[in-house]
Write a structure and sequence with these properties.
Layout: H1 4-10, H2 17-28, E1 44-46, H3 58-68, E2 72-75, H4 87-97, E3 101-106, H5 113-122, E4 127-130, H6 139-158, E5 162-166, H7 180-187, E6 193-198, H8 199-204, H9 209-215, E7 220-225, E8 227-228, E9 242-243, H10 252-261, E10 266-269, H11 278-291
Parallel strand pairs: 1-2, 1-10, 2-3, 3-4, 4-5, 5-6, 6-7, 7-10
Antiparallel strand pairs: 8-9
Helix pairs in contact: 3-11, 6-7
Length: 294
């Protein structure tokens, strides 16, 4: 069974401190670069944020999320599958009744993907997303992955939905003089797939999310809104340093305004490390983001 938690444990390497400097400052303090005039119309949440609580009471957790003001759901493949034991139609019916919509799910695109795409399309989902592939030994390996992404995109397109890839920090660190993320962007067909920018991991790699959003205008359609501990300097093997959204170092007001200008459509909170109970973390994050004007 695909286990995203194990993937995340393997992905926690950090950028060198010298890389951080000006690019991290740009990501966290860019208040004059983008016009501020909007808000999130339908805040989403990645259910992995509640990975320990969700399997015990899927319906109860979803009900709480609706009460916190979440409108969109991004699922993932846990032990009960991405529809949490309800089946695709049962899950849709339940979240519809709560005033929410499932728009996407992380999943293993190498296993039974035709069925997953058909089930997602059947209930009106927009995306299936690869959450992690891990650092590769060579740049050619990233090109081979891009070919796999295109094939997954073809399956999704055939079913009337889209495929996307969710980044970690490794693709935003140079390898043999190139950024693996550039290879992904340049070797995948825009007609077949989009990208989900995890803002936290871009910043952790010492990169400026706004620069990447502008470089590949219109290709990042979803984003993970995940904050980073103030004053944290990336170091090799660091633990996940995400904090409650709105309490960390990332300037979401400016970054999300830039994202909107570059074609972003879905804003999805994800919480990976906890300062208090996970449910309280995502409740406070929702309160911050639902009031944010950008």
């Amino acid at each position: 069974m695909y286990n995203r938690k194990e993937f995340l444990k393997r992905s926690g390497g950090a950028a060198l401190g010298l890389m951080l400097g000006s690019t991290l400052s740009a990501a966290c303090n860019t208040s004059s670069r983008v016009k501020i005039n909007g808000s999130i119309k339908a805040l989403g949440i990645q259910l992995y944020s509640l990975r320990d609580d969700l399997p015990k009471d899927p319906k109860g957790i979803l009900k709480q999320l609706a009460a916190f003001g979440y409108k969109e759901i991004e699922s993932y493949e846990g032990a009960q599958g991405m529809f949490w034991g309800m089946g695709n139609k049962g899950f849709k019916s339940y979240v519809d009744g709560l005033g929410m919509k499932i728009v996407s799910s992380h999943c293993d695109f190498r296993a039974d993907f035709e069925r997953k795409a058909a089930e997602a399309a059947e209930i009106g989902m927009s995306y299936l997303i690869c959450p992690y592939v891990g650092p590769q030994k060579t740049l050619d390996d990233y090109k081979k992955l891009a070919d796999e992404f295109n094939k997954a995109g073809e399956i999704c397109k055939k079913n009337g939905i889209r495929f996307a890839y969710h980044n970690h920090d490794y693709s935003f660190r140079q390898q043999d003089g190139q950024y693996p993320q550039d290879i992904f962007m340049q070797h995948t067909d825009q007609s077949l797939m989009d990208y989900e920018m995890d803002i936290y991991w871009v910043v952790t790699a010492g990169q400026d999310p706004i620069a990447w959003l502008k470089k590949y205008n219109g290709r990042f359609k979803l984003c993970h809104v995940k904050d980073r501990k103030k004053g944290a300097v990336p170091q090799k093997g660091e633990p996940n340093l995400s904090v409650i959204v709105g309490t960390g170092s990332i300037d979401f007001k400016t970054i999300l305004a830039a994202a909107r200008a570059e074609g972003m459509q879905h804003y999805i909170l994800e919480q990976e490390a906890y300062e208090k109970a996970p449910v309280e973390c995502v409740k406070e994050g929702a309160a911050y983001l639902n009031k944010l004007v950008f």
